[in-house]
Structure formats: structure tokens, C-alpha cells
Write a structure and sequence with these properties.
Two copies of one chain form a homodimer.
Chain A lengths: L3 H17 L5 H7 L6 H13 L3 E2 L8 E2 L1 H11 L7 H11 L5 H16 L2 E5 L8 E10 L2 E8 L4 E7 L6 H15 L4 H9 L7 H19 L6 E4 L1 H6 L9 H9 L1 H9 L7 E4 L12 E8 L7 E8 L4 H20 L2
Antiparallel strand pairs in A: 1-2, 3-7, 3-10, 4-5, 5-6, 8-9, 9-10
Helix pairs in contact in A: 1-3, 1-4, 2-3, 5-6, 5-13, 6-13, 8-9
The structure holds a DNA duplex.
Amino acid sequence: MVSERSLEVLRVIVQDYVASREPVGSKSIVERHSFGVSAATIRSDMAQLEEEELIAAPHTSSGRVPTDKGYRVFVDQLADMRPLTSAQRHAIEAFLGQSTDLDEVLVRTVRLLSQLTHQVALVQYPSLNRSRIRHIELVSLSEARLMTVVITDTGRVEQRVLEIAGGVDEAFLAELRAKANAALGGRELAEAAAILATFPDLFTAEQRDAVEKISARLVEQVAANRQDRLVMAGAANLVRTEEDFQGSILPVLEAIEEQVTLLKLFGEMQPDQHGMSVRIGSENASFGLGETSVVATGYTSSGGELARLGVLGPTRMDYSNNMAAIRAVARYVTRHLGEA
Amino acid sequence: MVSERSLEVLRVIVQDYVASREPVGSKSIVERHSFGVSAATIRSDMAQLEEEELIAAPHTSSGRVPTDKGYRVFVDQLADMRPLTSAQRHAIEAFLGQSTDLDEVLVRTVRLLSQLTHQVALVQYPSLNRSRIRHIELVSLSEARLMTVVITDTGRVEQRVLEIAGGVDEAFLAELRAKANAALGGRELAEAAAILATFPDLFTAEQRDAVEKISARLVEQVAANRQDRLVMAGAANLVRTEEDFQGSILPVLEAIEEQVTLLKLFGEMQPDQHGMSVRIGSENASFGLGETSVVATGYTSSGGELARLGVLGPTRMDYSNNMAAIRAVARYVTRHLGEA
DNA sequence: ATTGGCAGTCGAAGGGTTAGAGTGCCAAGA
DNA sequence: TCTTGGCACTCTAACCCTTCGACTGCCAAT
């Protein structure tokens, strides 16, 4: 059992260690904080914490360092999400305020987040399942090449190129375009596949082949969930914190470039009662990221839980600050995208 | 003056040093290569090279290492661009063969390049100046928000969102869309601004305000040269070669994320008679990249010199292999995009 | 429960030595 | 004039040893 004061000691150990990267000793604790007790007393508290495996010693005669379990307790029980400074709020406004399209919003968001947290920032593309189709465009690029564009009410534009042997004529394209827009405009993406399936019947036998091909492509395009992509910024911060990684940051950088791993990890994260998810060190071992922590939350564009955004960095990170920054940014992005 | 054999010695010093990261000594040269002379002779050749500042000694009694000037001579006079292995050619085919739209081609290209060279790969978005407008789409997203989409014959889609106070009605939008497509379809992007300037006169006084706003946005959109963006992959390779950087790789990673610096650097590069550009170490000092080399070449999509692609890495890199890989990939991409 | 005191432990830092690789130079040979 | 073997010299990397200092853990006293 850990006493009340012991938890307080854990808190300052986490804070001091995060701030200084030096193992924290009992003496420096009584110097820097006013516990009103002596170093020996702090030592016995530290013995308790060590008993519970919340802190550990790199070597016998050095200060103590939080374990992953210690960080976990800190995040769950001790971390206060202190509100951002007004300068920070101002930065968010200034940074995101003038964005035009979705891509731009995401890129600016991720840059902002990496600046606020000094970590690698990640933003997942929003899911489109609940969006509705605004417009479908078919453009012939050349003899045999055709481009299909789907525009949704969330401002997302999906484009594909496909080849049609023998080509298609403009009149047919116009007809298909008109029918597609009439039938699909305003519908949710999820409905599109069923509707498109009936399309070939609306055309003459000789056109049917092309219609089927185009429909198939549209279905695929509509199903292509952009949630399988994420935007990243701040890789330089990884190098800056390189010393916090026991091994090399190479696997971490590779995971970031792969994206797949991170998307899976994002998918597994369970939000707490404040909507924040934190995964710490060894909790990510199955992803080969046993020395990194991920802090994330969800954001929504127009209706429904849509996607996640957060940061990734060494276990030794400023959780309080990062959680606050992420929450603030997520709220702002949600508001900004919700205006659509 | 450097003798013929001295240059040959420079070549093997570069090759061996690149391969082993160890300073090269006269003894190891006679062991690994058959010059038919003794170590003492090689030493006098090395004295010549050192006199010319083509090689240097990290400390008095160690082997020699190429200087930036030495790499320069190597690249200009000694490097042979040995053709790729058939396995490598095969990889290019397999990797790029199935790409659909432009974005996809670029992303795949940059990944491929980083794999072939083990360096950070960079691909600049192609210039659109010579492309022609295929289609213009105006979509009302909500009361006051409108999306403009410009599609070009190179398969590029540019989208913007703008706000129109008071909104616009569908009929007007349809009219504007029709007129815009009639007037701009098939025209080069460069011509668009002039044509759009005449647009407000075609509409009634009360519509003019909205038309002006939309036209202005389209002009901006058409002028927005995508050449100011680049795609990047293989940052992990930087970490892998970290020891080749005297200082830290931090400024390099930052430059990569900034993009602006690299685009300027790309812009300054002068192709040699084979169309390849190589900038070595201190030649990039003005960009804060005095320890990195950049190898690049141009590629074209449909007509005209369009954009650049290449790799960036430590001065100690395998120039022969990288130049060959870049040239091969650029040729393939040019061919692939030219089919449009 | 808290405290001061004290012995004990361990890593980091400094100094000194050694082994080895490599050069530079020179005088002799082709 | 170029090449060669020999040899003295230089300098680093590695190793060991010692010292210094920070911290803990324990204990007896409060």
C-alpha cells in the first residue's frame, strides 16, 4: 500500500525527471519541494514506491526513475491537464484560422501539435462513412484514360484514373454523369454501392461494359476509407529526444513511415472518461514500440466520432502538457471542421 | 599536378571509404587492389592527392579520407554510372507499374528511390505551367461555402474552399460553371488569368460580386504552382547514417520538414551533360547543409522540363549507385507519366 | 512515524600505459 | 626520374586503475 505522501513523491519524481532527465534523489526532492520532512523520510517513501515497482534505480547508488507503471499511475491519478496559456490558445487560432481545404487543415494541425508538444505529431484522416456525396465528375483525360472524381459534403475530393479500352464518347459520359449525380447526390457513401449496382441496366447493351467498369471504380473509390492514411510532422523532435531511447530511434522512425503499425495502434486505443487515450512504453511492446508513449484523442468533423490525433514520443515526456495541448487542438479542429 | 595513377588511387580511396567508413591506408590499398606497385609508391601518390586537397587525414597517423573536393573530382571524372541490375529494374516496374493517379505515382516513386539508394528520397511535384485545363467544377458545400475544383490534363486536381457572404443559387452556379468550362477548357494554365479577368462583364451587376470572388480564387488556384511541394521518404535512412555526420542530423531533418530550403536548393542545381546534378557537402553550406550531398535529376510528365527528383544524404554516399538509380527511376517516371 | 548519522555501493571521470596502424622520409636500386 | 624497403615517429583507441561524489539502506534515537 502506498501512502498519500508517497504518491505526492511519485508526482515530483515524474515531474523532476521529465524536466531534467536526471535520476531523482531524495536530497534533491527535499531541496526543490517543500514536503516539510527530511530526506530520510522521503527515502522510506521511495522504498514503498520501489516496492510497488512504480520507480526503479538505474544502478544501485543513483537516484530513482519512474517505471512505465509509475508513469501510468501518474497519468491516471496525478496528472492535471492544466489549461493552455493564452499565448498557446492564440497560436492555435492563428495557425488554423485561415486554412482552406481539409488537407490544409490537417497539415497545419499536425505542425501545430508538434510545435506545442515538442513531439512527433500524428493526425488521422477523418472517416468518410457518414459523409454524403455532393458531386460526381467524370473527365476524359485522353483516348483511353478517364478520371473519376467524387466530392463529398465534408470537402473531401477522391480521384482515380482508369483505362477504358476503346474509349468512350462525350455524350455517353455526359449521360452517365447526369444519371450518377441524380441518383447519388446527397446519399451517404455507404449507400452508394447498392445504387451503383443497378446502373448497368439503365444503359444500352454496348455501353454496359464501360458502365460496369466505371461503376466498379466508383464503388471502390467510395469505399476507400481515407482513415487508412495519416499526416505526420515533427520527426526532428525524435532526434532531439534520442537519448531517451535505450536502443535506437530507428524502429520508431520506421514505424512512422510505415503508418500501418500506427494506424493499428490508434485503433486499439481506449479513451478514458475525458476522451483521452494514453499508452505508455511497454504497453506498446507488441507493436515494437516498447520505449515510446502515445497520447491521443478523437476529433470529429461533421457528426459522429471520426478520427484520432495525437503525439508519439519517448516514455519520458511531459504528459500533462501534451494531453492539454492535444485536447485543446482537437476541440478547435472539431469546431473548425464542424462549421462546414 | 596529379598523375594518372594518383587519380586511380583517389577512386579506390573513395570506393573503399564509402564501403567501410574507415580511413584508407596505403597498405590496405595494395592489399585490396592490384596496382602492381608497393605501399611506399602509393604513399607518394597519396602525398600528391593531399597536396591538391583531394584527400585529408583525420589525424596525423591514420588513413586518408576524401575531401569534398575529392568527391567532386570522383563524381566528375571517375564515377561510372553502372547500369542497374535486372532485379532492380524489375523492382521499378513492379513498384510503379500499378499506380493510378499522380499522387500515387509520386509517393511510390519516392519510396522506391529511398529503397534503392538507402538515402532520403525527394520528389518535387511537377510544374503545371504547361498543362491544360480539362475541367472546372463548382460545388456548393453549404449555404455560404463553395468549393472550386480545377482538373488538368496531367491528372492533377486542385481544390479550394471559399466563403460567399449571402450564398449563391444553383442556377447561377450552373451558368458560371458552363461559361468557365467553355472559356477555359483546353487552355494552358498560364492563359487562364487573362481570360478570367473578362468574366465579371458577362454577368448581371448583382452577380458580379460573387463572380469576381470566385474568379479571383480560381486565378489563385491556377497560379498555385504545385512545384512548391515535395514528397519525401526514407528519413529512417538518415538515422542509419547518423555517424557520417560530424554534428547532428537535426538540422538536416529540420530542413527536410521545412521543404522551403530544399526547394531552393533544387532550384539552384545545374545539370551536367547527362542531366544529373550533384552537390557535395560544403557546396551546400549556404543552406545549412554543409555535411550533406544531394544528387538529383529532372523528370518530365507531358512536355517540357517539369520537376526534379533525387536523394539527400551524408557526403559519404555511394554516388555511382545513387546516380544510376536516380537516372533509371527518372526515366521510368517520365515514360509512365508521358503516357497520359 | 520521523530523523540524523554513517557505512557501503556503484558509476563517471581522470590519468597513465600500451598496442597498433599508418605516415614521412631517406638512401639505394631500376 | 620513378620505385622500393626500411625505420623512426606520431597519434588514437583501448584498457586498467584510482579517485570522487552521489545516493541509498539501515539503525538507533527521538
